[in-house]
Amino acid sequence: MPLTILVADDDFATRLSITDYLEITGYSVIAAENGKEALGLVEEFGPHLIVTDITMPEMDGYEFVRRVRTRPAFRLLPVIFLTERTSTQERIRGYQMGCDNYLAKPFELPELGAVIRSLLDRYALIAQAPSRSPEPEPTLTEALSRPNGKPEADFLTQNSKTGDRAWNSLNAPSLTEREREVLNLLTEGLSNIQIGDRLHLSPRTVEKHVSSLFRKTESNNRAELVRFAMEHHLIGNW
Asked: What is the pLDDT of residue 168?
């Protein structure tokens, strides 16, 4: 059976062109003209991927995706935002809501198709990967028996907001100053060429730093990297 993609956009022409293109490509497509309608379709059809506009009546794309992410079954569902909102703060908000990729309007349908295929392939690999059981949390006795004779910050503070920040910091990868510079600009949505211009580096050098960031954070794409950086408070903290 073909994979199902949900397209949500209040503009009829955009919705129709995406639907026609994806159906020709071989996908099954369901469409909605606002987030409220789209949310009902998610529950009814359980799509494999969502393509959604942000500015829509009744329920915008941000709220739509936020509600989708509250459903355990859809927490890993790939989401692509199509929008005219391209400011840094808008992109950051989108990543915080759980989107995997941004495409600015106007966009090319073949590019959208390539992004969809990449995300579907990636999440298929994630779904096939064997799950790992979480490691049990240490007891207070175990924490106190560590070499320094004191409980580590992750044990004492993990149940508070400050503790979560300390835990994330302890488990964050060690980044060079240059990698942190690249990471901060990357979270602003800049391309490798733009980052190179800002830092006076060649695109090839920037690409090496980005690859290193992917490796150190075990991220597979920029969306995952940005999410990791936010969760571990790596942005602007140096």
From this structure: 45
Q: Rounded to an integer, what distance in angstroms lies between the CA atom of residue 42 and that of residue 68?
A: 8
As a whole number, mean pLDDT of residues 22-44 equals 92
Tokens coding 207: 């690409």
Measured distance CA(49)–CA(201) in Å, rounded: 36
Pick the CATH number of 140-231 from 1.10.10.10, 3.30.70.1400, 2.60.120.10, 1.10.443.10: 1.10.10.10
Q: Cα–Cα–Cα angle for 172, 101, 211, nearest 5°?
A: 45
Name the CATH superfamily for 4-128: Response regulator (3.40.50.2300)
pLDDT at res. 79 = 93
Q: How many CB atoms lie within 10 A of CB 221?
A: 14
Which of 72, 53, 56 lies closest to 6, judged by CA?
A: 53
pLDDT computed for residue 86 by the predictor = 67
Please state, in angstroms and as integers, the Cα–Cα distance from residue 211 to each residue in 70, 73, 79, 194, following that order.
31, 31, 23, 16
Q: What is the C-alpha to C-alpha distance for residues 137 and 19, in angstroms, rounded to an integer?
A: 48
Is 57 in contact with 10 (CB distance < 8 Å)?
Answer: yes
Q: Is the pLDDT of residue 161 over 50?
A: no
* Single-letter amino acid, residue 58: E
- pLDDT tens for each residue of 191-217: 777 788 888 888 778 888 888 888 888
Listed residue (124, 81, 134, 128) closest to 105, CA to CA: 81
Put residue 210 in one of left, alpha, beta given phi > 0 → left and psi -120 to 50 → alpha.
alpha
